Amino acid sequence: MARILAVDDERAILDALARVLGRDGHEVVRAADPTAVPGMDLSRFDLVLCDVMMPGLDGFELVRQIRPDFDGPIVFLTARVAEEDAVAAYGLGADDYVRKPFGAAELRAKVAAHLRRERRPRSHALSFGEVRIDLGARDLAVGGETVPLTPTEYAICEYLARHPGQVMSRAQIREAVLGWESDADDAAISMQVSRARRKLSDAGADPIATVWGMGYKWQL
Fold first, then answer.
1. What is the pLDDT of residue 185?
2. How far apart are CA 144 and CA 166, in angstroms?
3. CA-to-CA distance for 37 and 195, rounded, in angstroms?
4. What are phi and psi of 167, to 5 degrees?
5. Dihedral sign (CA 146, 192, 76, 4)
6. Beta bridge partner(s), residue 3
7. Which residues contact 203 (CB under 8 A, 6 or more apart)?
């Protein structure tokens, strides 16, 4: 069972989320006022579901504020389906999104996939010079300093690092990291890789290479 924070200004949506996810034994804490969320103890939650279009504080701005303090999966609930909106969501550190109106089966599958990914047992590490990936702690460090990756950014790095020197297409990365049920497209994967590379570069490492027209590879 997971504890999930659901943020939406429509109480009917919050009630539906609690009812649907409750079937899998999850506890859903409902927040109808997005402005109250930044002051909450987010460490109590395993996953955050967040609407985009909310009065007072929209979902994009809310995620921008809470992402530095919450390292679990963040999934947007949105009626906005334009590609630029999806790319913006991933650019802010979101891990996935569900289009409104959503189906119960799709929502349960996506939540289960993200929780399963977070809980996979890991008992060893991968080391590449100054870059070390602790698979148990889901932590990537450069020179002993942790790089502040989001769950999806970390998962992409881990996936590539498990296949050093192999070129992985965006489709392969999407399926391995987000699962077949994800709505993420190639542009969203490129955005996630770009964010991860920027953080790694700031830490003094450049392990991910672009292979034009094909994808990415771990080059250490």
1. 79
2. 26
3. 25
4. -85, 125
5. negative
6. 27
7. 142, 143, 145, 147
Q: What's the CA gap between 44 and 183, in Å, rounded?
A: 27
What is the DSSP-derived secondary structure letter of residue 186?
H
Quick one: 124 exposed, middle or buried, by C-beta within 10 A (0-12, 13-18, 19+)? exposed
pTM, to two decimals: 0.66
Residues of the chain with pLDDT under 70: 80-83, 120-123, 180-181
Domains belonging to the chain, first-starting first, are 2-119 (3.40.50.2300), 125-218 (1.10.10.10)
Whether omega for the bond prior to residue 38 falls within 30 degrees of 0, making it cis, is no
Q: DSSP letters of 84-124?
A: HHHHHHHHTT--EEEESSPPHHHHHHHHHHHHHHHH-----
Helix (H) or strand (E) holding 189: helix 186-202
CA 128 vs CA 5, 94, 154: distances in Å: 36, 28, 15
Question: How many C-beta neighbours within 10 Å does residue 38 have?
Answer: 13
Can you tell me whether residue 191 is helix, strand or coil? helix
Q: What is the pLDDT at residue 158?
A: 93
